[in-house]
Design brief:
It contains twelve helices and three strands; from the N terminus they run αααααααααααβββα. With 247 residues, the protein is mostly helical. The protein folds into two domains: 147 residues, Ribonuclease iii, N-terminal Endonuclease Domain, Chain A (Orthogonal Bundle), CATH 1.10.1520; 78 residues, Double Stranded RNA Binding Domain (2-Layer Sandwich), CATH 3.30.160.20. A three-stranded antiparallel sheet has the order 1-2-3. A hairpin with a 2-residue loop joins strand 2 and strand 3. Helix 4 crosses helix 5 and helix 6 packs across helix 8. The C terminus is likely disordered.
């Protein structure tokens, strides 16, 4: 079994045109070293980046119908950042298959995060050309299963109150209204309970160690309720929301 066959086994895909895979593994340093017009993987990286964005965008759009552009963009950005892609490349052991210049190899190019991330996108681009969109989508979903495939909600909302307001104001100019309904415990360890209302209706309740965190928790709960309504499922069947915001 040759090196490319070993890699194809890890990729879960067998190339019809093995030269595409070799090109995806050709680092630009090799062309620079040889001083000739040698093709390298940057064009495939460009293509693979676009394919990756499309697959994840399509899945996020379909899977999370109540979220607007802001949280969907943030969720996608977390999955396609360079560190994440470099980790994917390392897991596939792309570094051992890279075609590098002697200087780049001497300087640790096989383990360099940028080289691994670029190679991951280039391999995806090559796979797209060789097998088409469905083959590329299957590969992406397999690679991002842990980060994405099993999730029922976007796991972290940095500004749940803002996301809730954005969602509600898509339908109405009225902003959500928060009300602290109780507080308990000693002064150094208070627990607040808050409700959030919209259009005369209580949407949800939340708790926290400060009024701000209680409001954030209520906003998260309201987002879960609205998602349940949009999909006609019971709120108590939803998975736990993100951790209660800290004060």
């Amino acid at each position: 079994m040759n090196n490319l066959t070993v890699l194809e086994t890890r990729l879960g895909y067998q190339f019809r045109d093995a030269e595409l895979l070799r090109l995806a593994l050709t680092h630009p340093s090799l062309a620079h070293e040889q001083g000739v017009a040698l093709q390298h993987n940057q064009r495939l990286e460009f293509l693979g980046d676009a394919v990756l964005q499309l697959v994840l965008t399509d899945d996020l759009y379909t899977k999370y119908p109540i979220y607007g552009e802001g949280p969907l963009t943030k969720a996608r950005a977390r999955m396609v950042n360079r560190d994440c892609l470099a980790e994917k490349g390392a897991q596939l052991e792309l570094g051992t298959h890279l075609r590098l210049s002697r200087g780049e190899e001497t300087n640790g190019g096989r383990e360099r995060a940028s080289a691994l991330a670029d190679a991951f996108e280039a391999v995806l681009g090559a796979l797209y050309i060789d097998g088409g969109f469905e083959a590329a989508r299957t590969f992406v979903r397999d690679q991002f299963r842990d980060e994405f495939g099993g999730l029922e909600m976007i796991p972290v909302l940095e500004n749940p109150k803002g996301e809730l307001q954005e969602l509600l104001q898509a339908e109405s100019s009225e902003a959500p209204r928060y009300q602290v309904i109780s507080s308990s415990g000693p002064d150094h360890d208070r627990l607040f309970e808050c409700t959030v209302h919209h259009a005369g209706e209580e949407l949800a309740r939340g708790r926290g160690k400060s009024k701000k965190s209680a409001e954030g928790d209520a906003a998260l709960a309201a987002l879960a309720v609205l998602r349940a309504r949009s999909q006609k499922i019971a709120p108590d069947t939803l998975p736990a929301t993100a951790p209660t915001p800290t004060p």
